[in-house]
Amino acid sequence: MSDIFAIGQPQVVTDPPETLECDIAIIGSGMGGGSLAYALRDSGARVLIIEQGDFLPVERENWSPEAVHIEGRYKNSAAWHDARAGKDFIPGNYHYVGGSTKLYGATLPRFRECDFADIEHPDGISPAWPITYADLEPHYTEAEQMFWVHANKDEDPTDPWRSTDYPFPGITHEGAMARFASSAKEQGLHPFAAPQALDRRPGGACVLCAHCDSFPCLVSAKGDAEVSAVRPALQSPTVRLLTNAEVTRLDTDPNGRTVTAARISTEGRQISVRAKRFVISCGAANTAALLLRSASESHPDGLANSSDQVGRNYMAHVTTFFIAIDPRQRNDAVYQKTIGINDWYSAGPDNRYPLGNVQGLGKLRGPMIKRARPLVPLPILDEITRYTLDLFIQSEDLPLPQNRITLDRRGAIVVDRRETNLSSHRELIKRTKKVVRKAGFPIVLTQSLGVEATSHQCGTARMGDDPLTSVVDADLKAHDLDNLWIVDSSPFPSSAAVNPALTVAALALRLGHSSQLTA
């Protein structure tokens, strides 16, 4: 067994021995795992990041709409099964260094302060978290610095209190988005510059191109988990990265209280990693799947699952692509994902229940919607999208025990999910239609996103103080084990109605800066 942490050994392990040893094994290199490794980089602990995939290749196809959206060049997840529709699908998940953030839209809002408390919705209560916004606030601040977040303080009326200003100013609206933002403000709304993780610092590499949202960044100017977290972590002499390594199960000691090893399939070989402490950061569905696959005599229903909550309470937001068209004027915006509207985020005088969030999409083009409209010739789609204003609408999804992740006989992931709060979501769409039509966009098209929209998944290993009703405690440690933590969106008790990535990073930084993993 070679010492992969010896001086002079490469930071990326390419030819691992049959058994690797470390102090802390982090399974997954996405927003949770990457941010945790970043927080631990100066701790002195021997940290091994284990990533199922490889580095996403830097190539001209990174910015090709045809390659990314028609050919699906970077899709590399195994198929999941939709239990309600009875069919398989390829989820919007990616296995690369940096995880799914390699192709995310880089919108990084904080959860609202109210999101950590009980909130009433038409279909039930969004439950409180065992921590508060104040517990995460300093870690939100650090994460915004790490990921180059650009936004303007005091523009969003729902923005929670903050100890510092945003690191960088917000991105200016352009093209049709600027016209829409101006009209929305005249209509009494409060459009704001959505928090974006872009390298628009002085001398930064971002040029606000059209290939950001749902594309890999060819020039590493998007604040993704590889660029902003994993790469800096690997500058430490005590952090290593093992790629092309799928963790198939976790083993425990005979009494079931301590994880002893991770079994790994890599390049046709079977190896194992032994560590003092293990952290799972695979994303809500894959984290639940790994725990379920790790069933044993001590944990017959799956690892850390004495509560029967592993895989339950799956949430993914209720989402719609909202396309507004002004056929009289082309939209000349290049970088369009700049706007946010939260005027109906919480309950108010004219809406009894919270409705959700409206934000910009990256500028759509023909190849990006070809799969959704396969019968329409591509030249027609190209022409139509020159006139579209593209928005993304999301409402909170509630944690239902019957909405869950399970495994079929093959060990493949099965998703059983019923959307919640659809009446609120329909009302949010209705109000947005009214605003865009007053802004001069008479034609509106919508496309609801169903079970395949997995980029905001959360909730399958919920945190809580009671081991009978939760999987991990408020510090993200599994109730049932002494050396296992979960750091991704799985522990979310609720989904809120804004993008989850920054909250995942803040949770990871909070854990990494505590003494739990290094004591």
Can you tell me about this structure?
- The longest helix is centred in the last third of the chain and has 17 residues, at 422-438.
- With 519 residues, this protein is of the alpha/beta class.
- It has 10 helices and 22 strands.
- Strand 6 and strand 7 (124-126) form a beta hairpin.
- Helix 1 packs parallel to helix 10 (501-513) and helix 3 (133-146) packs across helix 10.
- It has helices at residues 31-40, 65-70, 133-146, 175-186, 225-233, 284-293, 366-369, 378-385, 422-438, 501-513, and strands spanning 12-13, 19-27, 47-50, 80-82, 87-89, 119-121, 124-126, 149-150, 192-193, 196-197, 239-242, 246-252, 259-266, 269-280, 318-325, 339-341, 357-360, 388-395, 404-407, 413-416, 443-449, 484-486.
Assess the beta-strand content as a share of residues. Answer: 15-25%
Q: Spans with pLDDT under 50 lasting ≥5 residues?
A: none
**Which descriptor suits the 3D outline?**
globular
Taking all residues together, what is the mean pLDDT? 97
What class do helices, strands and sheet pairing give?
alpha/beta
**Rg calc:** 22 Å
- End-to-end Cα distance, whole Å, is 26 Å
Oligomer: single chain
Number of helices: 10
Q: How many beta-strand runs?
A: 22
* Helical amount: 10-25%
Quick tags:
519 residues; 20% helix; six-stranded antiparallel sheet; globular; alpha/beta; 22 strands
Task: Give a brief description.
The protein has helices spanning 31-40, 65-70, 133-146, 175-186, 225-233, 284-293, 366-369, 378-385, 422-438, 501-513; strands spanning 12-13, 19-27, 47-50, 80-82, 87-89, 119-121, 124-126, 149-150, 192-193, 196-197, 239-242, 246-252, 259-266, 269-280, 318-325, 339-341, 357-360, 388-395, 404-407, 413-416, 443-449, 484-486. Helix content is 20%, strand content 20%. The chain is of the alpha/beta class and 519 residues long.
